[in-house]
């Protein structure tokens, strides 16, 4: 039966994939199919099988140029479908003419696809100097994960659609506490390589055996508890927002919005030591809203409850007037200014061409400064790591301080991308991040997913993108102990991948010299 399946697959390969146009179309389709492994579709096999198809194309490519084109086509399908919400944000809420919005989104997709193009070119150029099984299950995963790492660190970084997130709910997530989301990405790519090897080689049994052993090992890792609960659970009140961005930034609606958040919060006072609102829930500078917020400030003081909200701050310094995207308590006891800003919406790069494009983008509260306030602060007797939206997507940055953290609090405004798949993708990323760091992550959003991500990668959602504005009380558990990833971050994995890269490139150079 296995041999019959292999023969049919080989016939299909010969029929469809000998024509260059068919090959490019297949790569584009495969990249689009890979998106179905991510939220909100949540079908991990789709991503693995899409990679198997890409491996197949690259194994048959006649030149590195062909590998580059097909890698680019795969990347175009992956990012073109997977982050199409960027056009939604720019066109619906950013004030950009819809045609220009999709043009900017297209340019960004082309940039991201170029990373996969490099993977395709290098994999084909070096294919003949390593054994076929090493090429499939070691070298190609190495190139892929290094490309993901580059996407995370170059410029301000864009850690979206990493392969590892597709397996937040499978045994492969057991690698997250050890090697982070990039480690899970490697495990996904390795699995695809083993499947491709099983289908295309004569060592089918060997490949299947290794595949089974690898997944069995992953299952054992998935069952390991790296951290332990610390003390009792404590109640935290979350006010989920349901405010459209078109209404949120209308100054005429400001009194209504502030009143809505206060009305949702009044029943929670005294029920929990902390009430948390979402990112820029106060959609103006804090100093201009204090009079409107005085009722909740007075009642919170009487109830001994801390009100925490996302809000913009402004202050004068020796650098001139500065603006910050911040998390503050209305009693003035807590302040955190966002450090990792988002290009084009929170700051504009200084390049002349990009600055010209930026003039078309009318994002409210742009041109923020980078914050310098402590990332870990005391809330309700716990040491809490603080982050605003995009910051929760960078595991290595959170890992640097997680050893001092009991739990994490993230505020976000996913309304910029409503309605789209972005909110689901963000929540999926948060859940794997909690697994990676060994700390619960409380996430409070506007038009996103509000709830608690647990250390086993599961999540307790109290409100989704279509839920009404309302308050919810959730139990939050502090943890002690460190995952290997928090101890060593990405360094062991990157060291191993760099070693593989160096070995292959040295061998490639020698091969070219002798030929």
Descriptors for this entry?
515 residues; 2 domains; single chain; Nitrilase/N-carbamoyl-D-aminoacid amidohydrolase; seven-stranded mixed beta sheet
Task: Characterise this structure.
α7 packs antiparallel against α8 (176-200). The protein has helices spanning 2-16, 20-34, 44-60, 64-82, 85-93, 98-125, 132-153, 176-200, 204-222, 245-248, 254-265, 286-303, 352-358, 395-399, 422-437, 484-488, 491-514, and strands at 228-229, 234-240, 274-276, 282-285, 306-317, 320-329, 335-337, 376-379, 382-388, 407-413, 441-446, 450-453, 459-463, 470-476, 479-480. The chain is an alpha/beta fold and 515 residues long. It is globular, with a radius of gyration of 24 Å. The chain has two domains: 2-224 and 503-514; 228-482, Nitrilase/N-carbamoyl-D-aminoacid amidohydrolase (4-Layer Sandwich), CATH 3.60.110.10. The longest helix is centred in the first third of the chain and has 28 residues, at 98-125. Strands 2, 3, 4, 5, 6, 7 and 14 form a seven-stranded mixed beta sheet that branches. Strands 8-9-10-11-12-13 form a six-stranded mixed beta sheet. Strands 1-15 form a two-stranded antiparallel ribbon. It contains 17 helices and 15 strands.
What's this, in brief?
With 515 residues, the chain is an alpha/beta fold. It contains 17 helices and 15 strands.
Radius of gyration: 24 Å
Give the proportion of residues in helices.
40-55%
Report the CATH architecture of the largest domain: 4-Layer Sandwich
Low-confidence stretches: none
Shape: globular
Counted by DSSP, the helix tally is 17
CATH superfamily of the largest domain: Carbon-nitrogen hydrolase
């Amino acid at each position: 039966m296995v041999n019959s399946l292999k023969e049919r697959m080989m016939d299909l390969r010969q029929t469809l994939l000998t024509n260059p146009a068919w090959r490019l179309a297949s790569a584009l389709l495969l990249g689009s199919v890979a998106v179905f492994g991510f939220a909100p579709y949540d079908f991990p096999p789709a991503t693995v099988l899409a990679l198997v198809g890409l491996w197949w194309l690259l194994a048959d490519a006649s030149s590195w140029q062909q590998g580059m084109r097909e890698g680019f086509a795969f990347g175009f399908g992956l990012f073109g479908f997977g982050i199409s919400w960027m056009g939604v944000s720019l066109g619906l809420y950013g004030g950009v003419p819809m045609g220009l919005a999709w043009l900017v989104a297209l340019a960004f997709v082309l940039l991201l696809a170029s990373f996969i193009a490099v993977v395709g070119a290098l994999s084909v150029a070096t294919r003949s100097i390593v054994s076929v099984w090493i090429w499939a299950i070691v070298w190609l995963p190495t190139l892929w994960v290094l490309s993901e790492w580059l996407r995370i660190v170059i410029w301000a970084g864009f850690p979206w659609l990493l392969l590892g997130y597709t397996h937040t709910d499978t045994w492969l997530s057991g690698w997250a506490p050890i090697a982070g989301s990039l480690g899970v990405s490697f495990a996904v790519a390795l699995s695809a390589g083993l499947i491709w090897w099983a289908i295309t080689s004569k060592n089918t049994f060997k490949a299947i055996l290794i595949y089974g052993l690898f997944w069995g090992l992953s299952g054992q890792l998935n069952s390991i508890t790296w951290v332990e609960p610390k003390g009792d659970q404590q109640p935290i009140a979350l006010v989920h927002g349901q405010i459209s961005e078109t209404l949120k930034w209308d100054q005429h609606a400001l009194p209504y919005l502030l009143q809505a958040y206060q009305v949702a919060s009044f029943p929670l006072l005294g029920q929990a030591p902390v009430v948390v609102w979402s990112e820029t829930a106060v959609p103006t500078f804090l100093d201009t809203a204090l009079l409107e917020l005085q009722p909740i400030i007075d009642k919170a003081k009487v109830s001994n409850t801390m009100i925490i909200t996302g809000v913009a701050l402004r202050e004068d310094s020796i650098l001139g007037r500065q603006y910050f995207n911040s998390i503050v308590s209305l009693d003035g006891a807590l302040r955190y200014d966002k450090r990792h800003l988002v290009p084009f919406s929170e700051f504009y790069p200084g390049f002349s061409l990009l600055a010209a494009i930026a003039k078309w983008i009318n994002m409210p509260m742009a041109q923020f400064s980078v914050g310098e306030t402590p990332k870990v602060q005391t809330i309700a007797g716990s040491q809490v790591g603080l982050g605003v939206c995009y910051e929760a997507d960078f595991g290595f940055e959170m890992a640097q301080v997680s050893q001092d953290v009991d739990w994490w609090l993230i505020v976000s405004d996913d309304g910029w991308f409503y309605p789209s798949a972005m909110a689901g993708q963000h929540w999926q990323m948060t859940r794997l991040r909690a697994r990676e760091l060994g700390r619960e992550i409380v996430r409070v959003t506007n038009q996103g997913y509000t709830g608690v991500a647990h250390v086993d990668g599961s999540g307790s959602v109290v409100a989704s993108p279509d839920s009404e504005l309302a308050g919810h009380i959730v139990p939050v558990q502090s943890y002690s102990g460190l995952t290997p990833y928090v101890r060593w971050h990405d360094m062991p994995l990157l060291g191993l991948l760099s070693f593989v890269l160096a070995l292959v490139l040295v061998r490639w150079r020698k091969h070219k010299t002798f030929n």
